Amino acid sequence: MKLIGMLDSPYVRRVAISLKAMNLLFEHEALSVFNDIEKMQAVNPLMKAPALITDEGTLLIDSTLILEYLERKCDPSVSLLPKELNQFTYSQSLIGIALTLCDKAVQLFMEYYRRPPEKQYQEWGDRVGRQLRIGLDLLDQQIKVNEAGYLVAQRMMQADIVVAVVLNYLQKKLPQYYQDDVSDTLKAFSSMMEAKTVFTALQWDK
Ligand SMILES: N[C@@H](CCC(=O)N[C@@H](CS)C(=O)NCC(=O)O)C(=O)O
Fold first, then answer.
1. How far is the CA of 49 from the centre of ligand 1 (A)?
2. CATH second-level architecture of 2-78?
């Protein structure tokens, strides 16, 4: 399998960390959706990241769809989703909040750091900033780190990965939001997760 995309994308990083956590072998091609357009288009005409090329040569796009595929491919003992319904529902609710935070954080970064200042749309930026804060509050209210240091089970699951990955994205790309709007509980959780081997192996620079 080959994973395409840069680790500064929280979506790419969540897939890369999940692949490792699932003990699945993969190659990683760190192509940028902005700076490697031609190479990116050659593998993924839609120019989105992440993209996964399966061993059979099928192109999969969208982190959630890729992870659904990987869930079927991995050994059930390393599945990152709980089997029990209540636990699964809780996990899906956290993943939903964290993925919305990924969307909002990436949108904010694009608005303030990629769009020329004269073309920025203040109302939109304010709305997205508000959604980001609401999402962080929701997450803070809903998480409870257990005695093993995880959110839904006694080992690392998809909810842990995606929550940690978006917090790390905020810390590096939107440090002011991280400093002002991320609770101490979430910051502590982020540090704990980022210290794990599977995370340090897949770190990225600003
Ligand atoms: N819902 C998608 C979002 C992926 C996404 O937005 N990726 C960004 C990079 S962080 C991208 O490909 N941007 C280029 C584009 O949208 O054209 C997923 O979960 O994979």
1. 5
2. 3-Layer(aba) Sandwich (3.40)
